[in-house]
Amino acid sequence: MRLTRRTFPLALVLFLASAACGADFWISKAKWFQIEPAVAYGNGQYLVAWSDSRNDLPRIYAARVTPDGTVLDPAGLALPISPREAVSPSVAFGSGRFFLAWQDAC
Fold first, then answer.
1. What are phi and psi of 96, to 5 degrees?
2. Nearest 5 degrees, angle CA 39-CA 44-CA 49?
3. pLDDT truncated to tens, each residue of the chain (106 aa)?
4. What is the pTM for the complete model shown?
5. How many other β-carbons are positioned within 10 Å of the β-carbon of residue 81?
6. Do residues 11 and 35 make contact, with C-beta atoms less than 8 angstroms apart?
7. Least enclosed by CB within 10 Å: which of 38, 39, 82, 102?
């Protein structure tokens, strides 16, 4: 698996070794910036999280992706409900669950 860490104005792109011939596909097509991607694999799917500024302040969004590249949450799931900025996500899998951490801006 190879994950790009560049800033994309319209989408985060994930490259999975199991995708057809290494074809790339969109995780998010939201406007503005989706940056700081993080990914973990468990229970037969990936969880991809990123910092997303589609609604002015950066927030953490996530999407589940199958090994064949099907994005199960195409609009992304907005995760923290906070009046502050949320950035720098980190994702892990263990004990049958995904764990997601991020940094709230002070």
1. 80, 10
2. 20
3. 344 444 443 344 444 444 445 567 778 878 778 888 999 999 999 999 999 888 888 889 999 999 888 899 988 998 866 777 888 999 999 999 999 999 887 6
4. 0.78
5. 7
6. no
7. 82
Identity of the residue numbered 9: P
Is the Cβ–Cβ distance between 22 and 15 less than 8 Å?
A: yes
CB atoms within 10 A of CB 24: 14
Structure tokens at 8: 């994309």
Structural tokens at position 73: 């949450």
d(CA 74, CA 55): 17
Longest dimension (CA), the chain: 43
At 22, is the secondary structure helix, strand, or coil? helix
Q: What is the Cα–Cα distance from 96 to 105, expressed in whole angstroms?
A: 30
